[in-house]
Specification:
Layout (H helix, E strand, L loop, with lengths): L2 E6 L4 H11 L7 E7 L5 E7 L2 H7 L8 E7 L14 E2 L5 E8 L3 H8 L10 H15 L4 H11 L5 E8 L6 E6 L4 E4 L4 E4 L11 E4 L5 E5 L2 E5 L5 E2 L4 E2 L15 H7 L1 H12 L10 H9 L2 E6 L1 H18 L3 E5 H6 L8 E7 L5 H13 L3 E5 L5 H5 L2 E4 L12 H20 L3 H4 L3 H16 L2 H12 L4 E6 L2 H17 L2 E6 L16 E6 L5 H12 L4 E7 L9 E3 L7 H19 L18
Parallel strand pairs: 16-17, 16-18, 18-19, 19-20, 21-22, 21-23, 23-24, 24-25
Antiparallel strand pairs: 1-4, 1-10, 2-3, 2-4, 5-6, 6-7, 7-8, 8-12, 9-10, 9-11, 11-15, 12-13, 13-14
Helix pairs in contact: 3-4, 4-5, 7-13, 7-15, 9-13, 9-17, 15-19, 16-19, 17-19
Bound molecules: 2-deoxy-2-amino glucitol-6-phosphate.
């Protein structure tokens, strides 16, 4: 959460910071700000509540500089406002700081050290910059030493990426991180800092990853990384292949629509990366051996990725016969289940940065168990910290509502489960021609995304003005119902539940009234009849029922027909109309579908 950018050594600092922040806006968008220094005695601090466009309007023609820092905020401490926007400045006007994360003991630090300082904001961040100024002045510490001293006072529960400037050394950026992502981008005669490489892909493709606890000093011609003991670390940059154009919307009005449309391509890309021409799955043997040894799989994830994990359980149990549990990361962190004798952990995370999942992975590493991260972001924290990584190759997902990462995760789980099951000699896996099945899925997805007008119409008729809604289904369709409900609620603010259709009558049916939308997912041959009778129960109570049904189970009057695919892969198709219903409902209600209120793409705080 929160996007951070910094630059030193480039006369276009203002534009580079603003463009970088615009690309990071998905990480938070309630306020933003920049500090720039021209190196000839001029400095500018501009902040504004709202989006980057609002900030741009505040920036006068005179604002210029060759170094600077910027921030787009997702509020944790203090309401979204100009005062609480970053960068924060010390009372003496010398130090400027942007921060992503949460300082757990900020209140104690403030009481202990800063009783005499007048604060300009309600943020935890301001405590840090005021403390740096205090130690620099009262103890006559150099900036690096004051920065290190303050970091040493921050408690264990805290997470941060800090980017600090001192106007007495305006070419230098001071950088540190703990549990929050931050990268140094290496330029020619200049260097940049960013919380996600996509912010700076128009400046460089070479990035240096940072390790928690390091202090980094970035100047136009140098990047010096020091470990906590002060030893200088030599670390080579890694290359990011992503083209800057991949993070643009192109002709699409919104990223969410672009990303929904990209899903057939994601299926084909996974086939290309993981399946050879002869149909065999190509996944590292050491990973396969580790999973085959496990007596139980534990899938850990949050939000949409958790929902992809629910489908993963069906795939792993169906194709590998390995008992599989799926856990919400934030719950597992504080209330772990009793583990089996030989557990193996699978982390599903689009961003690879989710704090709740990271916390569990840290625990798993302490326990000494092996793990796999399935992610869309190469070199992301969860990827680096797990034993193994499999990448989604889905291209950057920018819209806050996850779409192509969900289907990518399920498809990759299917590929992995096929391979493990095959090696274990499970007949359901040997007969599962995953390349053929995923190609059929890709074609089916294409058919669905080509028919957008019908979803726009259903959204207008059923969802555009409703107060609440339900998605229902059984078994694998219930998994999809939960994701479909999350999609609708997060972008349209319609209170939506994903419900096991048989469970409705045990209480929740009390909420059904005249016109309540109930959208039934029906793709399972065994459960279709039962879900249909649940739709009759809600119809009898006035519900507005929409059926999303596989072609082979369709009946007259069903509104959305899905192309037939393998029974374990129906979520890959059933979710597409639901994503489009969410998209159109949001637009019809007049919302910014890519940046729903209160949310951020990468949830790096607990
Ligand atoms: C998805 O639409 C959400 N915005 C959110 O639930 C997301 O899936 C969740 O925060 C997990 O993120 P991750 O996949 O990056 O770990």
């Amino acid at each position: 959460m929160c996007g951070i950018v910094g630059i030193t050594g480039n006369k276009n600092a203002v534009d580079i910071l603003l463009n970088g922040l615009q690309r990071l806006e998905y990480r938070g968008y309630d306020s933003a700000g920049i500090y720039v220094n021209s190196q000839d005695g001029k400095e500018y601090l501009v902040k504004e509540k709202g989006r980057i466009d609002d900030l741009r309007e505040e920036i006068g023609a005179d604002v210029h500089g060759t170094s600077g820092i910027g921030h787009t905020r997702w509020a944790t401490h203090g309401v979204p406002s100009k005062e609480n926007a970053h960068p924060h400045v010390s009372a003496d006007g010398r130090f400027f700081l942007v921060h992503n994360g949460v300082i757990g003991n900020f209140a104690e630090l403030k009481t202990t050290y800063l009783q005499d300082v007048k604060f300009a904001s309600d943020t935890d961040t301001e405590v840090i910059v005021q403390l740096i100024a205090k130690f620099a002045k009262e103890e006559n510490l150099a900036t690096k030493e004051a920065f290190k001293k303050v970091i040493s006072l921050v408690d264990e529960s805290s997470s941060y990426s800090f980017l600090l400037m001192d106007n007495q050394e305006p070419e230098t950026l001071y950088v540190a991180k703990n549990k929050s992502p931050l990268l140094i981008g290496v330029g020619n005669g200049f260097n940049v800092v960013c919380s996600d490489a996509i912010a700076m892909l128009d400046q460089t493709h070479d990035f240096i990853e940072l390790v928690d606890g390091e202090i980094v000093i970035v100047k136009p011609q140098s990047v010096t990384i020091e470990d906590p003991q002060g030893n200088v670390i030599d670390r080579k940059p890694f290359h990011v292949d992503t083209d800057a154009s991949e993070v643009e919307k192109g002709a699409y009005p919104y990223y969410m629509l672009k990303e929904i449309d990209e899903q057939p391509t994601v299926m084909r890309s996974l086939i290309k990366h993981y399946i050879a021409d002869d149909g065999s799955v190509t996944i590292d043997d050491t990973l396969l051996d580790s999973i085959k040894k496990a007596d139980r799989l534990y899938i850990v994830a949050a939000g949409t990725s958790y929902h992809a994990g629910l489908v993963g359980k069906e795939l792993f149990e169906g194709l590998t016969k390995t008992p599989t549990e799926v856990h919400v990361a934030s719950e597992f962190g504080y209330n772990p289940p009793l583990l089996s004798k030989k557990p193996f952990f699978v982390f599903l995370t689009q961003s690879g940065e989710t704090a709740d999942s990271r916390q569990v992975l840290a625990q798993v590493n302490k326990w000494g168990y092996e793990s796999l991260t399935i992610t869309n972001v190469e070199n992301s924290t969860l990827s680096r910290e797990a034993t193994f990584t499999l990448l989604l190759y889905a291209g950057p997902e920018i819209a806050v509502a996850s779409t192509k990462a969900y289907t990518g995760q399920i498809a990759l789980e299917a590929i992995l489960a096929k391979k493990i099951g095959e090696e274990k000699g499970i007949s359901a896996a040997t007969s599962f021609d995953v390349a053929h099945e995923l190609t059929t899925v890709a074609n089916g997805m294409q058919e669905l995304v080509d028919e957008k007008s019908q979803y726009e119409q259903i959204a207008a008729n059923v969802l555009a003005t409703t107060r609440n809604a339900f998605y229902i289904g059984r078994a694998i369709d219930y998994d999809v119902a939960q994701e479909a409900a999350l999609k609708l609620k997060e972008v349209s603010y319609v209170q939506t539940e994903g419900f096991a259709s048989g469970e409705l009558k045990h209480g929740t049916i009390a909420l059904i009234e005249e016109g309540t939308p109930v959208i039934a997912i029906i793709t399972g041959a065994k459960t279709a009849k039962h879900t249909r009778s649940n739709t009759q129960e809600v119809l009898a109570r006035g519900a507005n029922v929409i059926n999303i049904v596989s072609r082979n189970l369709a009946e007259d009057g069903d509104q959305v027909i899905l192309p037939d695919v393998h029974s374990l892969l129906t979520p890959l198709l059933a979710i597409i109309p639901c994503q489009l219903l969410a998209y159109y409902t949001s637009l019809q209600r007049g919302y910014d579908v890519d940046k729903p209120r209160n949310l951020a793409k990468s949830v790096t705080v607990e």
